[in-house]
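Standup notes
- DV: blocked on the single-chain target, sequence here:
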Amino acid sequence: MREKYPNEKELEVLDLFYNRFYDLFDEIINDNFKKEDAQLRLFKLKEAFSIYKELLSYDPIKWVIEGMKNGGRPPLEGVIADDLFSFIRNLLSHFPVFKTWDEVFINKDLATWSKTGQIDRFLNKSIQFNEEGKGEVKYRIFDNKKKKMSYFTIKFPDKYDSQNIYLKDIVSEETGMKFCMILMKKILDTQIELEQ
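- DV (later): unblocked, structure below
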């Protein structure tokens, strides 16, 4: 095991990725983001998920995710932070044919058209969550500025066949994306030393 993280090469990459992610974070969680063109919103969300997915390969972030999966609270948060977010990134990257979040869908034929990969594995896993009674995770986000609570659900697909599974039915764009961005930032922040 190495003694020091990050090394010089990692520091250069982390600096680029973190700076861009935080810029996107500020844009996406802003209430004005929903007023942007739907195609632009999808592009920026795709970019944020792509950056996050790249950062998941950095060992110290992997360790945070492993800790979440092994006894973290709430249940399935580690799966959401790793598997679900990776699924979203892969879906948006490997099927760049959709113009808006609400249009994005997948089915078994699309997921396995050339090979079985992470998209297929995630959807098979989501069926197991439903069989175990864990297919729906409810969340709430408190907006401190507005003193308002928002509620939403992440709903893992309960069927995986030739019927279309829409991304919007797994997680909504507006409230769901605020949650996703906040959770991604929370994980990425574990590697930041804040100045006092």
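- Follow-up: The radius of gyration is 17 Å.
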